[in-house]
Amino acid sequence: MKHAHYASKQYALLGRVLLGTALLAASAFLPSQAQSVYPTRVVKVVVPQPPGGGFDFVGRLLAERMGKQLGQSFVVDNKPGSGTLIGTDFVAKSAPDGYTLLTGSVSNLALNPGLYRNLPYDSLKDFEPLGLAVSYSYTLMARKDLPLASLKDVVAYAKANPRKLTYASAGNGSGQHVLAAALWHLAGVEITHVPYRGAQAAYLDLLGGRVDLFFDLSPTARVQVDAGTVKALAVSGAARNPMHPDVPTIQETGAAALDLESWFGYFAPSKTPPEVLGRLRSELARVISAPDVMEAFRKSGGRPLGLSLAETKALVQRDVERWTALIRSADIKAE
Question: What is the topology classification, in CATH, of domain 43-136+261-329?
Answer without folding.
Answer: D-Maltodextrin-Binding Protein; domain 2 (3.40.190)
